[in-house]
Amino acid sequence: MLIGSTLGGHGGSWLLLAPINPDRASYSPIIVLLVIFAVVALTIQVVHRQYHGRKRLGPAWDCGYPLQTARMQDTAEGFGQPIRQVFEAFFHVERVLPSPFDATPEYRMKVEDHFWRWLYLPVVRSTEAVARLIGLIQQGRISVYLTYSFFTLLALLFFIR
Amino acid sequence: MTPTGFLSQLLQLVIALLLAPLLLGWVNQCRGWLQNKSAPPLLLPYRTIRKLFHKDAVIAENASPIFRTMPYIIFGAMALAAAIVPSLATDLPFAQAADAIALVGLFALARVFIALAAMDIGTAFGSMGARREMFVGFLAEPALLMVLFTASLISGSTSLPTIVDTLAHREIAIYPSLAFAGVAFTMVSLAENARIPIDNPATHLELTMIHEAMILEYSARHLALIEWASALKLFNYSCIGLALFLPFGIAQGSDDWLAILGATPVLVAKLAVGGFALALIETFSAKVRIFRAPEFLGTAFLLAVLGMLVNLLLGS
Predict the structure, then answer these.
(1) Is the peptide bond before B197 cis (omega within 30 degrees of 0)?
(2) Where in the sequence is the domain holding B161, given as residue range(s)?
(3) Does the structure show a pLDDT above 80 at B24?
(4) Is A154 a member of any domain?
(5) A108 domain residue, yes or no
(6) pTM, full prediction
(7) Structural domains of chain A, count
(8) Percent of chain B with pLDDT over 70
(9) Contact list, B102 vs chain A (CB under 8 Å)
(10) Distance (Å) from the C-alpha of residue B225 to the closest C-alpha of chain A?
(11) Under an 8 A CB cutoff, do A36 and B94 touch?
């Protein structure tokens, strides 16, 4: 049933992605792509024909600041900073900022989910505590295990009798 | 796709391309009057674009091809959006290529490219602008989608022409949900088009810029195309707003040329009123700090969700 029929089966053209009916929702990625390409090509042509395509290469302007080095470039850390700032209330953020007088400045940032701290970590801790209690009877010595078997056997004999 | 339909489509696109700088000029002129300044001439945006086209482009030495193609791509995306939005006629051939959700995606495409190009040179101001633009964009997009969902709940369709047809053909009724959505849409449009209170298009302070900071490295024809594209973006957003909330006077169908030409003065009148309102909003408010933008856009999102809830729970 699924083979050989278009999505939504509206019987229209294969160009159109319409789940129910083109009147309700439709999308045609090919037309969008082609039209954008066509407009781009046409604009380049018209601009270069009608005016000119002259260009000059020069240093980056950057509002007239000449001493720009690659170290001043934005990092992913900086790029996401506003978003992190806004959602700070929803996360547990630890931030270590350098002072201007540090000889070896260091920036550190740790972002944690509140759920991790308040929900998952307690569960982890209690599971670990229980596991540690159980771990007490497992010492990894064959003599201890033989003792366990011996007492189990005694108990069984006691009950069966 | 009939040849007449195609020609009507082309006609709407050309009218949109020609009217967009006029809308920008009108908003600037109104703002000048309202702020007791000597207002710039109405046709100044056209002259700026023409002047810029004549100049030699200066490109930074370390610019990649992304930097040089970006103006063309955002111009193409905005032109396609102008062809899709039912500003003059519904039922145009391209309208089916993208419904309201895909249209939001188209705007997002332009935003991604402009941010990429801003980071391309590696200057501090460019990447700061890109960072802020993405920040504002990711807050504004959900609110915009919510507004569109509210309108599509009423008409049962996310296709803009169907929404317009449905809303324009009902008996005059006030939809409380659309009132909420209208306020939310206005707020989102202000943020998306880099207007006050989120960004100031007339600012000269690099530290407060968002949109302008991203295009600082551009000159000549590239800058002209970017200016034209942002004028088109404002035009598109205005037309989406008019199509959703004032869908009167838009020609039905695409085979009647006279109807399309007749719809043009109505559109111009509506845009004139809308542009004056935009200038009024910009005069009455001040630019907010960048970290107040989430509150502004959060309010817009909340209003849009309220509109949707009013529609779902009260059915109005």
Answers:
(1) yes
(2) 3-314
(3) yes
(4) yes
(5) no
(6) 0.85
(7) 2
(8) 97
(9) 27, 32
(10) 9
(11) no
